[in-house]
Fold each of these.
Amino acid sequence: MADNIDRNAGRDPADDKAFKTELVALIPHLRAFARTLAGDPASADDLAQDAMVKAWDARASFQMGTNMKAWTFMILRNQFYSEKRRSWRQSQLDQEAAERTLVAVDDPEAPVALDELRQGLAMLPAEQREALILVGAGGFAYEEAADICGCAVGTVKSRVSRARRALHAILDDGAYERDGAAAGDAMRAILADAERLSTVR
Amino acid sequence: MIEQQPNSDRRRNSAALDEARLRQQAIGVRLRQMFDDVVNEPVPDAFLDILRKADQRSSENG
């Protein structure tokens, strides 16, 4: 982006260095967020890399000391949705993409309960899933999540609360079934795992 | 007025509430774990290579 490069000209190298350090520290988080959006781990990394370069090119418009994590997540999200609009391949139903995404696990030994949580997430509407992931997993405040998604704080709050209720119902009440196992089993597995995790930590 | 609800009912209601809360917490724990699993993966070298190239590109331009 010639525009950004022009604006970056004459920047203090120390500012660039500080920016770069902070950006590098955010890469793992960008990868994790991308993994919840893109179709598979490889395209998630492509998305995260594109977002990282976009953030670097736009560094002149970032105010140091403000929340770089929220800023880069917003860039990544915009990148994802603009690519999605452009690409005919991705014009299938959101639901289909979401299922591929959240089911994509690198580790074949991943605990079953986690797999079922992914399946449950895949059944949520995209905007609810996104809100829940930002607030429930990404550690963002409602206000920050609202900035990232470009919507009102109240909208994020209601999406998160609807997502929590829906996910609970999906995992608990048999809305989701796999290999003939009742979904109540999924919830029990999640509870057992969570208990194990909380005692280990 | 004195509480009419039998003790056993009240206990059951509060147990159900506790369980619902526990379940929501459990989902929260798993959600964070799903995200943190990726955060904790080593960053592929490609990321730093790409950033280094972008940095060089901009210092040539600047």
Amino acid sequence: MNAVGGAPRHDSAHLHVSGEALYADDIPLPANALHAAFGFSGIAHGRIRELDLTALQGQTALVVATAADVPGENNYGSTLHDDPIFASGLVQYAGQPIFAVAAASHAAARRAVRAARIEYEPLPAILDIRAALAAQSYVLPSVHLSRGQPQDCLALARQRLAGTVHIGGQDHFYLEGQIAIAVPQEDGSMLIHSSTQHPSEVQQIVANALGKRAHHVTVQCRRMGGGFGGKETQPALIAAAAAVIAHKAARPVKLRLDRDTDMLMTGKRHDFLADYEVGFDEAGRISALLVTLASRCGYSADLSGPVNDRAVMHLDNAYFLEHVQIVSHRCRTHTVSNTAFRGFGGPQGMMVIEAIIDDIARALGMDALTVRRANFYGPGRNVTHYGQTVEEDILLRMVDQLAADSRYAERRRDIAGWNAANRIIKRGIALTPVKFGISFTATLFNQAGALLHVYSDGTVLLNHGGTEMGQGLFTKVAQVVACELGLPLSAIRVTATDTSKVPNTSASAASASTDLNGMAALAAAQTIRARLVQHACDMFGVASGHVRFEDGRVSAGEHSMSFADLATAAYRARISLSATGYYRTPKIEWNKTTMQGRPFYYFACGAAVSEVAVDTLTGEIQLLAVDILQDVGSSLNTAIDLGQIEGGFLQGVGWLTSEELWWTAAGELATHAPSTYKIPTARDWPARASVRLFGEPNREHTIHRSKAVGEPPLMLAISVFHAVRDAIAGCAAAGARPPLTAPATPESVLRAIGNSFAAGRA
Amino acid sequence: MTADVAPTTTVLEYLRDTLRRTGTKEGCAEGDCGACTVVLGELDPDLGRVAYKAVNSCIRFLPTIDGAELVTVESLRGSDGSLHPVQQAIVDHHASQCGFCTPGFVMSLFALYLRLEQPSREQVLEALSGNLCRCTGYRPLIEAGCRMGAYAPPTGWSRAQAASSERREALKALCRERALEVPGFCAPRSLDELAAAINERPEALVLAGGTDVGLWVTKQLRDLPPLIYIGEVAELKRVRRNGAAVVIGAAVSLADGWDAVVGEYAELGELAQRFGSPPVRNSGTLCGNLANGSPIGDSMPALIALEAELELRRGGVTRRLPLEDFYRGYQRKDLAPGEFLVSVSVPRRRPGLRLAGYKVSKRFDQDISAVCAGIALQVESGRVHGARIAFGGMAAIPARARAAERVLVGAAWDGETIERAAAALAADFQPLSDLRGGSAYRLQTAGNLLRRFHAEHGADAGPVRTAAATAAPA
């Protein structure tokens, strides 16, 4: 049987539905374990005048940790070392951890935190992008990328527009909050159970915090209850704090953030502002583009550098920008430090160009799809502004197919008819493309390792550096190994990611985990297979070309035996049945200084048509229908890929419609729980939905010619935002550019409709 | 239950920490994500069997499930280890990804499975409206729900077994003769007993479904006074209808209470559906929502518009009060120490009434209103004869729009009148700006809800709701 392709179920599905799947919080603890909670800053910016913990210290069975208790480096920032585990002296956002308390129960620890008295000397706070720009408050130097003669071409352009694009942030809202358990081991070592996408970084930062070396710390993660980028750098804070208290108490410590603390304390998707000037011709083709991007990074750098770099790189989306200038400001604000989130800046970059394209179309009175087509990459227009050649025309073919299959043109006519006839409910439609670069832009992260054991009874245990957060990585990589060894999928067990098994791993991020870990596991399986082939050749005297692995059996010429019997025979013949595998992505190179090169191994493409109805009285919207075509190469697992596409799309819909982060004037986040922060529910999945895989094999030599699927589908949701904008334009005179800001909440929609053409007062 | 467990211990804490049944998850500790969903079986005297309902275990205090059957995700496998049809359908439809929300979805669908043999898509959406999933796009979960009925009956937890007399008798055997009383908690079993208990301890907190009080503990970490639980008082668990009113007892759940209201006023069906989620509506009570008195409670505007009345009792003395007079200011109510809410009476429908209950929020399902409106008009021969309009989200209390009402009463029922009424709202309300909406947006929307009402009741404006567009040609 062929274990790749098809739709085998998630390897933990039966455990998910029965409640038997163990998450970090479900792991039984040693009897002497303590439970910890953070105390955090109540103000956005200020000096801690006094941290009075005496009320806590009187209580029995409490262990309190502050910056003074960190034996090593008080930092969990991976790039600039600018994220203190416990703030001391200065607090830089409301929600910043200052101390932690461990007690006999989670509830007792949370209550103990309240007994602390903190006095601050407030300092002026910079809370949003405009304020940061005015103050030139940045966490990192601004980046400039230009090509051609954008200023000159803008001056010469036959048509010009200027505008501003507002894009909101987003909370990850993984259902399982941040959590770590630190269990002291002998000889100063520490075992960490962490819900993390990046065990190796947790390992390094815990070691640094304890003043130890990497080999003192082991980090394990069997699964996360969702990650989405929110568990790339943030878990290091939780694990390091847990380790510091565990070290101090010499007892195991569990640190689980309740939902509110999680949302107040941990980073989110960057919100962006973009000011643009664009020149174009009567066909809508862009001749010059000047964009200033600014994002809210929060108080520290975290991953804001690469996030904003990716926004710059994806500002082209699918379009050739011959003369372009992009300035990217990374704004420092006294808010939580924003971080990785599915798409990693790419979605914000794409939102900017799609808004510009839509503005051009409305100014010219053209269908936005026509303007999109006029700007697509094509022959002679196929080098991106960062120097990578777009080598295939797959997106054009996908857009043509999707436009036809979804009957885009016909539906647009229907909608125009509806909008002419109806005053209160307006409909809108949009088709938007996605071209997303696959690889970590930091070239060094594009490597992976795997460890594969075959036991003497023929069973297989697989371990690799990737982490399982629900995306089905463990299932896909197991399929790769099963395929290579000719075994049923059930013969492969995947174990918890463990820094003591595979070292120096990259984060499970950038959509690249299957590409990287699948190839590494394949390499390990090939090594073992080669040894087994050799042994079969020795046993049966056949040439290696005559040994086949299929359906759990191995045939060598006319001989045949079970895989298990061959494994037993190999073991008895003293042949190693354990192997590591390693992979690094070929072809990529990137000059960070010039922002030129080939950062991406390939592009994953997609397109979506969304149709919405807008209630012009309340601003409420309803997603009526979506048609999606997503390029996944040769799918390793169609069910898992479909799940990623649908889930990514709806998460993007949440980002651009209902999910609003709202801060008070003092800089406190007021939307820090599901009662106030609204992610989509089942009803938000449209009744009419068609999701198809564009199954063309990847032209690059990826694992079984598949393509990455984790992040790209999120950006398909941009079609929903533009369908809303289209519906709003249905209220206005031709040529109007509705000032819709993201997220398109009812309030944002009603504001964009404006008084001039609000319905109901004819 | 042992005496060393605090009465404010949640069912979730008890499951996870004491019983070590960790399949049930905490996602938010406020009843808003559904990861903690469990199913409670309680004797239903009308049905003559055990009724099983999904509830949020994260905000439900342990003593309040005394005498009930608690079913968790670990309960569902058959004796041979086979998965329940609900579980198998989720596996087969690839409806779990990270799996953390999955136990909650299983339990919400399980409650639906026991109730309906072949649920429609709409019924599945309704059943899942209190469960958040961040990984899937819900499509596979919806399909699992639509198709779970087609699986062969399970070896454990079939519909027949759930409805069996054995289960009923097993639960009956647990029935108490006398009130449950543990330190800090008592659950009187009759109205007189309740009145006496509250009178004796006016400092006590009267607890009904706990869907708000639960958060005082899980979110605010408050130490609560002694709790007097009304959920065991038989007289308060009834809905009665007489010629003048539908009378809903203080312990009637939101689900049953709204059913009774919607039975009389079908126009309020959408409002009822959008109130919380099934687990919240199964635990929480309609009168609890009224007594809580939040300025953004969704039941008050419509019930004020309908001239609902409260019955209050203190010791042996009862009094009646129009609902709107109950609210005296932000979190201030006309409620004396030792006094408690017995019931709410919703008048029966009068001829000529035009009614609407509107809710506007960022999300359709399980959200808190930015603006909520109850509009009741008497229109005869093209003229407005009576108008009662109440709003939530517009002031510190749920409040009448008296200036707008004055414009309407006696005026012609036309667009010009509606414009004047909408303009008058500025005299009625100066709403605040917060995370749910800005002041200007709230005021504009409130006016637009009057316009929507007019469009739905007379003006030829074409479709008024987005749902109308779902039927539009594709």
Amino acid sequence: MDKFGFTISKGRQINYDQNDRRIYNYIIENEPSFRNCIACGGCSGSCSAGNFTRFSLRELNILINRGENDLPRTNLKKCMLCGKCTLICPRGVNTRNVVFLAKQAFKRFDSYAF
Amino acid sequence: MHFDPFVIPFNIGLYFILIYTVVRCITWFRDLSRPDKLRLQRGFFGRAFGQSLKEIFMESLLHRRILKTNLRLGYMHMSLAFGWFLLILFGTIEADIFSQSHLNAPYKAIFFKFFNPTHGQTEFERAYSFMMDFILAFILSGLLLAVLKRFSSRVVGMKKTTRLKLTDKIALTSLWMIFPSRLLAESFTSGVYGTGSFLTGTLGSWLNTFLPSDHLAYVFWWLYSISLGTFFILLPLTRYMHIPIELFLIFMRNSGIKTGDKTGTFSEVQTYSCSSCGICIDKCQLSSSAGINSVQSSYLMKAIRNDDDVFNIAHNCLMCGRCDQSCPVGIELMPIRMIQRREGEGNGDMRTIWRGYFRERQNPALVRVPEEPSFGYLPEKKFRQADVLYFAGCMTHLTPLIKNAMVKIFTAAKENFYFVDEDGGVCCGRPLMLAGQDREARELINYNSEIIWKSGAHTLVTSCPICYKIFKESYHIGAEVLHHTQYIKRLIDDGSLRLNYSHRKVVYHNPCELGRGSGVYNEPLDVLSFVAELQNTQFDGPNSLCCGGSLGNIKIDTVSRNKIAADVTAELTACNPDVLATACPLCKRTLANATDCQVADIAEIVAGEISLIQRKKSRISVLNIRELAEIS
């Protein structure tokens, strides 16, 4: 049975009451254009860091929006702030500031420092 | 008469400010690093001393640089500074010549008329009074401009003037009171004794006809003394501290002290030397195009002085360097802003003592958590031996026409080149540095440096001025760093690249990082005039505009960026050029979004004009010479 090749996926649900939305709120407060994101993935497509590793601003955006901060916390520092995503973004999101603020927010709200 | 109680406020203020300035300068001197101390000592007793005195006369008194940029504003500053200086100088001489004793206390010179009311009877005395009146009139004319400027900055030809805080306003009012109260005090005294020249004499005799001059004179002498005293005591808390501190700055600068990358005495002296003249505000495109009026350099200096939160101000700047280049005091505004951006620096490390009269540097130990490298994921470094490396840069990958053009140029010039970041490379690190994240930037710098070192190339060509600046300044690589415009210029000069001439009209937009940032002005223009008809604009050279797309500003939104870009393109395309040329992929993208005119990089224009007949590359190597010798 264990060699069947399929497993049952772990149950997963997003609980907005428990998730930590402080990071998202901090970003929104200081960079309202973050709301405009339509998750088109242009940022991830053009990303210099994403060329080498798993790093996608689109993914981080969705996760931070949900308040699931574990991956963003470790992944954000991979960003080189090169600014290609800001130029690409069709919705005029100031993505560099989003990353910058997210890093700050993690520093401010977490004991975790990076 | 030798003394009157009304001189007390003036004396308190004067001795306070003298002692304060000396104490402040001594503490600053003590804070200097050892090499800087030596520099200053050497400068003080060396050739720099004469230079500094000249600069103090030309800049602190005559305000030559402000006069050059804005005549009316310059006149305002000059009349107040130079006029006041002359008034003090000739007042002291007057007191020395005409009083009973020599070497008088300063108040005897300032209030000379009060202590010698009958002065002005003989011909010589009358001539001297005329001169003193003339100087006073000179100051008052500048003061009139200053008062009008507060209500409408257009009077002195400025779009905006600096906003003030309460202490600034009180100090400003006391400064404004000084000269009118002197005028009235002297006039009333002259009126009573029938002395005084064309200004005080005439006004005095007229006022004496209907006012009790004798009593009023005393009131205005008190007012004069109180305004002087108040002004001196508030001086350290306001922008007027630049009056004594600028002298110290000039000596330090001429001794060869630089701002560096940490807060220290020199950066602090510079923040105190800012007179908030507002020229930086006028030059700032955030102000003129995007309507952002709280982040300009003079506000940054003020926020640093007042220990306010400078984070947002420091980061909301295009880093175009227009203010830095136009600052009449010569403050290194860009390095100071960069210091404020760096994490762990700037805000919060100063402690204000005694209501802000003294500040103490706390130097908190930086908490450095042992961190994993941020960019540990980067792949194994690939490199290839080549003569010339081409580093396109992140932004160039978004404008593929530029990199294709460069590849075409390299091929046409038959250069042995290696395209370092052909498959999407690693960022140069400057964007991180501009955001104040130096540690992360250093990681990228090390990564790229190794590739460049190992390739053994003698030249590194880059298409992006942002990369160019950091390669030049922060990389220690064995190769010569060239921007592609410089490289193309060389190819043209040594005949490796033959180009056709097109009769298209071209206007050049000078990117900030290339022009003001790295001092490359001529090569792009030379290349352009070689292939096309170059049109001049009023924004050539150091006065060039910022496209608005700058990576230096992490805070402004797209709307503001677009406004700046629209204004810039409107200015540059006013003469209807066929092509708006630039030398930066970021500028190209930003400008192209804002205009219907064709925007192209110089590399593209050159690549389009490559002549089909190229000369064969003739390099006589050592081997060739030997072969030739064997054959012969």
